[in-house]
């Protein structure tokens, strides 16, 4: 009988240890603050010329009037870069805007 009591006591200790592990709260992971990635737009003649070329190619391939967002998406540019390229093309008279605020080749 002494062995049975020892076995029960050992089993009780093991069960208590298992319960303690289950009851222990998990450590909360500290959430890192997501920092917004700052976009820098370099404005120079070379950059504006390349963006103008990208925008022109998209408008030529589309063969229809597109919105600013559509041009930016198709050219894979930010809206800021798209505006930079459009400004170049508008100054040269290569593009025109429609009544419904879309851009088309002139």
Explain what the structure shows.
With 106 residues, the protein is mainly alpha-helical. It contains four helices and two strands; from the N terminus they run H-H-H-H-E-E. The protein has helices at residues 2-23, 45-62, 68-75, 79-92, and strands at residues 95-97, 103-105. The chain has a two-stranded antiparallel ribbon.
**What is the H/E string?**
HHHHEE
Structural class of the secondary elements?
mainly alpha
Give the N-terminus to C-terminus distance in angstroms: 102 Å
Query: How much of the residues is beta strand, in percent?
Result: 5-15%
Strands in their spatial order, largest beta sheet = 1-2
Q: Per the principal axes of the C-alpha atoms, what is the gross shape? A: elongated
Largest sheet descriptor: 2 strands, antiparallel
Average pLDDT works out at: 80
Low-pLDDT residue intervals, each spanning 5 or more residues = none
Features of the shown structure:
106 residues; mainly alpha; 4 helices; 2 strands; 58% helix
Short structural summary:
With 106 residues, the chain is mainly alpha-helical.
């Amino acid at each position: 009988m002494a062995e049975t009591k020892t076995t029960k006591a050992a089993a009780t200790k093991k069960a208590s240890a298992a319960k303690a592990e289950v009851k222990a709260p998990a450590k909360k992971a500290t959430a890192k603050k997501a920092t917004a990635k700052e976009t820098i737009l370099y404005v120079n003649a070379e950059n504006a010329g390349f963006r103008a070329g990208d925008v022109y190619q998209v408008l030529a391939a589309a063969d229809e009037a597109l919105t600013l967002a559509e041009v930016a998406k198709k050219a894979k540019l930010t809206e800021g870069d798209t505006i930079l390229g459009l400004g170049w093309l508008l100054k040269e008279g290569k593009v025109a805007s429609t009544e419904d605020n879309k851009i088309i080749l002139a």
